[in-house]
Write a structure and sequence with these properties.
Distance between the termini: 54 Å
Mean pLDDT: 79
CATH class of the largest domain: Alpha Beta
Number of domains: 3
Helix content: 40-55%
Order of helices and strands: HHHHEHEEHEHEHEHEEEHEH
Radius of gyration: 25 Å
Strand order of the largest sheet: 3-6-5-4-9-7-10-8
Shape: extended
CATH architecture of the largest domain: 3-Layer(aba) Sandwich
Number of strands: 10
CATH topology of the largest domain: Alpha/beta knot
Structural class: alpha/beta
Low-confidence stretches: 101-105, 111-130
Largest sheet: 8 strands, mixed
Length: about 300
């Protein structure tokens, strides 16, 4: 091991090797940037979601090179502070490494950091990126939960203020097999008005907290995971709800009762839909609008689920 270390150090000290590694990193960086520019020109005008996904993976590809440099060149030491009684167990047990990071480059660097220090015969390492958003899981009734049909639809109601609207949406989402409902605060689950409308639906539907200030980052994250963001809003480019064909991985974004959806959030959405109206009143209640959209989505996908 010591001889291998000396050989590696000698190789690392060679100026041509250092120049070559730097050259490769710079060239690959320019190449990735060039592809990003082309995707901006060619893909962005026609498919924003695809453009974001392409750039997401290009960025990960570029910066993952740092993990190679980190492992091969830096030879960094990791200092572990531990109780002397536990010292004998280090590197001889399975470990779960929890990292409160959300992006792939953190996962790659963390994996390299802990990977080489494992006892290959007796241990392995699992790294998990912690979910930054609090989640309330549905009721733990294995037999009943196994019979519940769920779609891929996520309903985002973080902009909605009124407890009654949130309670009604929760009930609607559970009835139509929504995968997850996102709200601004999980404290609403303790509100009596919410409970009166939800009719225990919150016990069976997965609910996640994403505060309004976190919503922009959350939407970008979900787009990177392949979700199409559909906003219920009246705009010049809105499509009729009854003509639009929902994709299976859809995130439905609902607006505030008074203000609707902020402009900075609308700039992120892939599609806006509106509900055709025949009356004089300008709009429907947000709970009713959401229920109509969820029902229209479920009409296409719920019957095809296994």
């Amino acid at each position: 091991m010591a001889s291998n270390r000396r050989i590696l150090t000698a190789i690392q000290s060679l100026i041509p090797i250092q120049i070559f590694i730097g050259y490769c990193f710079c060239v690959s960086g320019f190449l990735v940037n060039f592809i990003q520019l082309l995707s901006k020109i060619i893909i962005w005008p026609f498919h924003k979601q695809l453009y974001r996904r392409v750039n997401y993976y290009l960025g990960t590809l570029l910066w993952s090179q740092l993990t190679f440099i980190y492992t091969w060149w830096a030879d960094s030491d990791v200092t572990v502070f531990v109780d002397p009684k536990d010292l004998e167990y280090l590197k001889h047990e399975y470990a779960l490494n929890l990292v409160n990071h959300r992006y792939e480059i953190d996962w790659l660097v963390g994996l390299v950091d802990i990977g080489p220090n494992q006892d290959e015969e007796s241990s392995s390492t699992i790294q998990h990126k912690a979910n930054p958003y609090p989640v309330v899981e549905s009721l733990d009734d294995t037999e009943l939960r196994g019979s519940i049909k769920r779609t891929q639809l996520i309903v985002v109601a973080s902009l909605i203020d009124k407890q009654t609207n949130l309670g009604g949406l929760c009930r609607t989402g559970e009835v139509f097999g929504v995968k997850e409902m996102v709200i601004g605060s999980i404290r609403i689950l303790e509100d009596q008005q919410f409970l009166n409308l939800s009719m225990t639906a919150h016990k069976w539907l997965r609910i996640k907290q994403v505060q309004e200030r976190e919503l922009k980052d959350y939407l970008i994250d979900m787009q990177a995971q392949g979700y199409t963001i559909v906003a219920v809003e009246q705009t010049v480019n809105s499509q009729s709800l009854y003509e639009y064909q929902f994709l299976e991985k859809t995130l439905l974004l609902l607006g505030n009762e008074r203000e609707g959806i902020r402009a900075d959030l609308l700039s992120l959405v892939d599609v806006t839909v509106e509900i055709p109206q025949a009356g004089v009143i300008r709009s429907l209640n947000v709970h009713v609008s959401g229920a109509l959209c969820v029902s229209e989505y479920a009409r296409k996908y719920l019957n095809f689920m296994k």
